[in-house]
């Protein structure tokens, strides 16, 4: 059973930086893909960034150039470095995993989720 636990959320002023971490209960080496999602009050959960087992990264347009997703396979950790934060980045951030171990990478299907960590950006 794969378990994900996020940490690193908090309150930060606009323009500041914050780093999120996601600890996994199993090896993330060769996991098809891992991602960060977020959900703001009254809005749908949205994909923020994802990273495949081959190191391919994707970002939603609103965070491109400000956020960086990375993974440490040796430590079984996923990270999200958030820079130049804006009030509209305020949300609960979730770590997600597509834990399938595939010979050929395929479109991610995230079915394992963490409990979320709150990020609040004040103006």
Please tell me about this protein's structure.
The chain has strands at residues 4-7, 10-13, 18-24, 33-39, 46-52, 57-59, 67-72, 77-82, 91-98, 112-113, 117-122. It has no helices and eleven strands. The mean pLDDT is 95. A hairpin with a 4-residue loop joins β5 and β6 (57-59). Strands 2, 4, 5, 6, 9, 10 and 11 form a seven-stranded mixed β-sheet that branches. A four-stranded antiparallel β-sheet has the order 1-3-8-7, with no helix packed on it. 0% of the residues lie in helices and 49% in strands. The chain is globular. It is mainly β and 123 residues long.
How is the topology of this model organized?
Blueprint: E1 4-7, E2 10-13, E3 18-24, E4 33-39, E5 46-52, E6 57-59, E7 67-72, E8 77-82, E9 91-98, E10 112-113, E11 117-122
Parallel strand pairs: 2-11
Antiparallel strand pairs: 1-3, 3-8, 4-5, 4-9, 5-6, 7-8, 9-10, 9-11
Distance between the termini: 40 Å
Radius of gyration: 14 Å
Q: How many extended strands?
A: 11
Q: Which class best fits the helix and strand makeup? A: mainly beta
Helix and strand sequence: EEEEEEEEEEE
The overall pLDDT average reads: 95
As a percent range, the share of helical residues equals under 10%
**Contiguous uncertain segments of 5+ residues:** none
Mass-distribution shape: globular
What percentage of amino acids are in beta strands? over 45%
Please work out how many helical segments DSSP would assign: 0
Largest sheet: 7 strands, mixed
């Amino acid at each position: 059973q794969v378990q994900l636990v996020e940490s690193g959320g908090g309150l930060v002023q606009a323009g500041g930086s914050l780093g999120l971490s996601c600890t996994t209960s199993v090896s993330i080496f060769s996991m098809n893909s891992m991602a960060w999602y977020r959900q703001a009050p009254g809005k749908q959960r949205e994909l923020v960034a994802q990273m495949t087992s081959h190191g391919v990264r994707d970002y939603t347009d609103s965070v491109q150039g400000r956020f960086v997703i990375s993974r440490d396979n040796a430590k079984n950790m996923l990270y999200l470095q958030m820079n130049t934060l804006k009030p509209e980045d305020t949300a609960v951030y979730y770590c997600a995993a597509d834990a399938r171990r595939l010979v050929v990478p395929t479109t991610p299907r995230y079915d394992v989720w963490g409990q979320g960590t709150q990020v609040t950006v004040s103006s």
